[in-house]
Amino acid sequence: METRKIRIGSRDSKLAVIQSELIMEMIRQAHPELELELITMKTTGDLILDRSLDKIGGKGLFVKELDQALRDGRIDLAVHSLKDMPMEIPKDLPLLAFSKREDPRDVLVLPKNSSELHKGKPIGSSSARRTLQLNRLFRDNPTAGIRGNVLTRLAKLDNGDYGALVLAFAGLKRLNLEERVSKIFDSAEMIPAAGQGILAVQGRAGKDYAYLDCVNDKKAEIEALTERVFVTALDGGCSSPIAAFAQLEGDRLRLTGLYYHEETARTITGEISGCRNDAEALGRTLAMQLKTEV
Ligand SMILES: NCc1[nH]cc(CCC(=O)O)c1CC(=O)O
């Protein structure tokens, strides 16, 4: 029998490759009969580094090239950080599996050889969500945008351009850079982004992906669904700050959300909880509650 070969597409950043290899290892363990090949590519989001993501078209820029490779049949799967995926997933390229969630919290990172945050120095943030919450937490420090992959951002931090940086704990853990963490934010003071810490595996509609059962984590899937329904119900675009954090414990599902209302310049937060079977209803209901609070 000829061995079946699965080609897995990934962005070419170090973190993306490590993440794809994590997924490949899961498939390999459960299905030693499959041959796996990693195919990396640069995305528009990796190439344009001098402008903020909101200005050049948002999250879709990290997935466009991989979407095309899937459609062309150059790859069979794509592995993404769920956080970087647009809310609208094309019908022909469904998300097939969600990995067990890595720690979803954000962390503060100081420059090498620095033991405390210097007053007045900017804190680097790559998202409106982080910037908004930083402004409430650190009155004595301005924020400044920062682009590039995690290692590029850390290099900029160590160059002395910033007093600190906010990054996802998940990314630093996977890069084996946990020792760079100087503070872990509580998920209530710095509410994470929808999907943070979860990897999503995408494929082509109509193909047999039974072998991905070994990757999917039901808890991560439900949390991801809840958070993404909430963001979708609140938002059209991707530039207004929104945070969404769902936690499933047993049968209880709790969702914390934050959004910034541009016209009134108000930041609104709220929480809802219910049953695990009501993920979508909880997401939509909290979105409606926050909207009517304005
Ligand atoms: N936008 C980049 C990005 N996309 C996913 C992660 C972290 C890993 C994850 O959330 O699974 C990061 C880095 C960061 O925000 O610090």
From TrEMBL:
UniProt GO cellular component terms: cytoplasm
Which domain of life does this protein belong to? Bacteria
The Porphobilinogen deaminase N-terminal domain covers 6-207
Pathway in which the depicted protein is active = Porphyrin-containing compound metabolism; protoporphyrin-IX biosynthesis; coproporphyrinogen-III from 5-aminolevulinate: step 2/4
The UniProt record lists the EC number as 2.5.1.61
What family does this belong to?
Belongs to the HMBS family.
Q: Which InterPro entries match?
A: HemC, Porphobilin_deaminase_cofac_BS, Porphobilin_deaminase_N, Porphobilinogen_deaminase_C, Porphobilinogen_deaminase_C_sf
Q: Which GO terms describe its molecular function?
A: hydroxymethylbilane synthase activity
Biological-process GO terms, alphabetical: protoporphyrinogen IX biosynthetic process
One family name in Pfam for this protein = Porphobil_deamC
Q: Which PROSITE patterns match?
A: PORPHOBILINOGEN_DEAM
Catalysed reactions, semicolon-separated: 4 porphobilinogen + H2O = hydroxymethylbilane + 4 NH4(+)
Q: What class of enzyme is it?
A: transferase
Q: Which residues carry this modification: S-(dipyrrolylmethanemethyl)cysteine?
A: 238
Describe its function. Answer: Tetrapolymerization of the monopyrrole PBG into the hydroxymethylbilane pre-uroporphyrinogen in several discrete steps.
Q: Which UniProt keywords apply?
A: Porphyrin biosynthesis, Transferase
> What cofactors does this protein use?
dipyrromethane
Record domain Porphobilinogen deaminase C-terminal: where? 223-291
Q: Which residues cross the membrane?
A: none
Query: What is this protein's name?
Result: Porphobilinogen deaminase
Q: Provide the assembly information.
A: Monomer.
Q: How is the cofactor bound?
A: Binds 1 dipyrromethane group covalently.
Q: What else is known?
A: The porphobilinogen subunits are added to the dipyrromethane group.
